[in-house]
Amino acid sequence: MKALIYIFLPFAWMLCLTSCNSDFLDRAPSDKYTDNMLLKTTEGGKMILDGTLRRTYLGTSVYASQGQFGQKAVDVMLEMMCEDYFTGDGMWGYYENWYAWLEHRNASSEDNEFVWMYYYGTIDNMNLLLTNVEAMEGPQEERDNLKGQAYALRAHCYSKLIQLFAERYKPEGGNNQLGVPIYTRPTDKGKARSTVDEVYSRILTDVDSAIVLLTEDRNHKSYLNLNVAQGIKAEILLTMGKYAEAADMAHKARQGYPLMSVNDFKAGFNDISNAEWIWGVQIKGDQSTIYGSYFSHVDPCSIGYNELGNEKRCNSQLYEKMGENDVRKAVCVSGDGGVLTSANGDFEVLPYTVNKFRLPSYSSWAADYCYMRAAEMYLIEAEGLARSNQSAVAADVLFELVSARDPDYQKPSVTGDELIEEILLQRRMELLGEGFRFLDLKRLNMSLDRSDKGHDPTFNKPLKVEAGDKRWQFLIPIQEMNSNPEMKQND
Length: 491
Known about the structure:
This protein is mainly α. The chain has helices at residues 2-5, 10-16, 31-34, 42-54, 71-80, 96-99, 110-132, 140-165, 196-213, 226-240, 243-253, 262-265, 294-298, 316-321, 327-330, 374-386, 391-402, 416-430, 437-443, 478-483; strands at residues 85-87, 277-281, 312-314, 338-342, 345-349, 369-373, 448-449, 464-465. The strands form four sheets. A two-stranded antiparallel sheet has the order 1-3. A two-stranded antiparallel ribbon has the order 2-6. A two-stranded antiparallel ribbon has the order 4-5. α8 packs antiparallel against α9 and α10 (226-240) runs parallel beside α16. It is globular. Residues 1-34 have low confidence and may be disordered.
């Protein structure tokens, strides 16, 4: 573990905001810098947390390529592996091997290492904070808040790692398959992989601790509060098949976060002031990572990588199932292609191009990143209720969400499996391009099928991946294999 778990120093990350000095890429043991600087007071603890949260969006000042920019990069990578949101022709090479299901199965892949290191680096910082926070000078209220956020963020990271680098959690039981190593204290000594069951137990312990310690109050949406912790737990419970509990927790998480208006939905998913966003980060112009940023890769008019050959498109079958007055259809181009008009000029785009994610102004690369919003919680609640034999209430919850997107939508009259199918369809429409499809297919043990969905037949590889195929598991990065003698590789 030594090569990958060393802390990316928060102090250095703060300096990174105004410098691209390559020295900040160095990995060094945390105690070399932090004993006297960051670990003595709660103010120092906040610096550790702030630096870690900045790491969720920094680009090549921390990571190795312009396709790596924290959490939203992982979201794009996962979407590229599925059928609903995909790249046009792979120009520039960004995410082409994710689309081809090769990147995550290459232990030497730089991108694959990024995913592993992004989450474990965050975990190591939270371990540093949790190990030292009780001894920090400052009000107990501040110590509790730091602990709560650290537990929630650690739970979030372990939940992503276990879903990517291990076999799926089986709700029926028998989860003794290899998971990922569990670290709860800073260390440079690698551990063996815990079981999937043990990792989920750790995740639930952490997120429950966060829920006890956190309140709804916070200084900014970039911080994790009670609602974020409840949302993280709702996601975890859904993955575990604990549907009634997931529905209850999702309902709690979305309180105080009304659904966005149609106009806000069309505005580009770029503003943290959006009332629906539960968690996100605000990125100012001098903090943006420009070409190595999320919007460079997803805005079709940004003159970034998306416009320069990596256009993102929508599953044609999914598009056709959207209502004519559905705002989610309005942010996608029709099957005839079209011209998008923007302050950057007019852009002729491919059929089914997704125009959902856009920069607010082309005079700057400043645009905020969304990590959690209320609509996801509505969908978890609806699915959890439907799978708990509460079809009528589930239909009510679903209707409240979808009618805010499509004024012609009718409340479902179906029940049971038909209602669940409708909920899953609406989930795909609502969360298109936001990083959920791969995780949903895996948790539900469903196959991937890209047939007849608008994918370029010369570029469409693989066409299908069956449920249970070993390729649903990421390989452990070679750097981890070489530095941790306790590590065992996936098949």
